[in-house]
Design a protein that fits this description.
The chain has seven helices and eleven strands. By secondary structure, it is an alpha+beta fold. The chain has three domains: about 20-160, Protein Transport Mog1p, Chain A, CATH 3.40.1000.10; about 170-280, no CATH class; about 295-330, no CATH class.
């Protein structure tokens, strides 16, 4: 039993001695990221021709040359998702691969060179952080390729910081809403924005509404991604909403935003379609003429049969000859 324990202890010590311990964390406040780096390396920044954020290495026994190196460089800007393996004119001794960082597949390219008659392997991985991407370099004798690749994988996996890349869930929300853009353009051209049968604007107000709808098509998708990221950071959601819920929320948001804009435009420019409806209703309504009043003339007295003078026939009330009442004769 004691012998077995000694064997296990020796094996553990051997593994500890043969594997670099990731005992310290490099943190860059300016770029907002951190990375765990292996122990056992010395600062070699003074011997580097290219300036790096971190330069760690091991010297050969004569202390005249570097035999292993780990470096992190600031690439000075964010990087896109272009596949570097498809870059024209790439050197023949460069091999392009992929490695995992978070949920992304990032570029890893290796170079094998002859340095002082020794085959030297350099691994470079570009991590898409923001505001600046970084490049991680691990280099050493090609005979230690397996160990160098393991170190690279551990360093890359430990990098923690914000990225300008979108996850697959976020990318489905990040595109342009071309339907909203198309509707906005049509409204701007026609100058008519009709939300319901009797509600909308015409002319300048409509074109302003069309421009607003067009802007929504470009602005809302990125805002939706930022909202998802914020909700995820607050622990409110742990994954993207299911498609049906997202679709309903998407349509509802656009509808509410457009209605709010039209309400403000109608207050400013008037409800053109309501005015049109009232005019059409007034034009189609039947007209009623008041009945004509026909005045009856009294030409002669019924009692004495004496003719009534023409200028008195319309207004006469009593016979000028016999005094009979002529009002009943009308």
């Amino acid at each position: 039993m004691m012998k077995s324990a000694k064997i296990l202890l020796c094996a553990a010590l051997f593994l500890l001695c043969s594997t670099h311990l990731f005992a310290w964390t490099y943190t860059n406040q300016e770029l907002g990221f951190s990375a765990a780096l292996p122990d056992g390396y010395s600062d070699i920044s003074s011997q580097m021709k290219v300036k790096a954020l971190v330069s760690q290495g091991k010297m050969d026994p004569s202390k005249t040359g570097i035999i292993e190196m780990i470096a992190i460089q600031d690439l000075g800007a964010p990087i896109g998702r272009d596949d570097l393996s498809k870059t024209p004119g790439k050197p023949e001794n460069v091999k392009f691969e992929k490695t995992a960082w978070k949920s992304f597949s990032i570029d890893l390219f290796s170079v094998v060179e002859n340095v002082n008659s020794i085959s030297f392997l350099t691994l470079n991985a570009q991590v898409p952080l923001k505001p600046h991407a970084i490049q991680i370099t691990v280099a050493g004798p090609a005979t230690d390729e397996a160990r160098l690749r393991a170190e690279m994988q551990q360093i890359v996996a430990s990098v923690d910081g914000p990225t300008n890349w979108l996850t697959d869930d976020e990318r489905q929300y990040a595109g342009t809403n071309w339907i909203a853009v198309l509707v906005g353009i049509i409204v701007m051209i026609t100058g008519r924005l009709r939300i319901s049968k009797h509600y909308g604007v015409i002319g300048t107000g409509a074109r302003i509404g069309g421009f607003f709808i067009l802007i929504l098509g470009f602005a809302v998708p990125p805002l939706a991604v930022l909202s998802l990221r914020f909700l995820a950071s607050q622990g409110i959601i742990t994954h993207a909403p299911i498609f049906l819920v997202a679709l309903v929320a998407w349509i509802a948001f656009y509808w509410v935003a457009i209605w709010a804009a039209v309400v403000m435009l109608v207050k400013e420019y008037g409800n053109a379609y309501a005015d049109d409806a009232e005019q059409v209703a007034t034009a189609n309504a039947p007209t009623f003429e008041p009945p004509k009043v026909v005045k009856r003339l009294v030409t002669q007295c019924r009692m004495c049969q004496v003719p009534i003078p023409p200028d008195q026939q319309e207004t006469v009330r009593a016979c000028p000859s016999c005094g009979a009442d002529l009002t009943l004769a009308r």
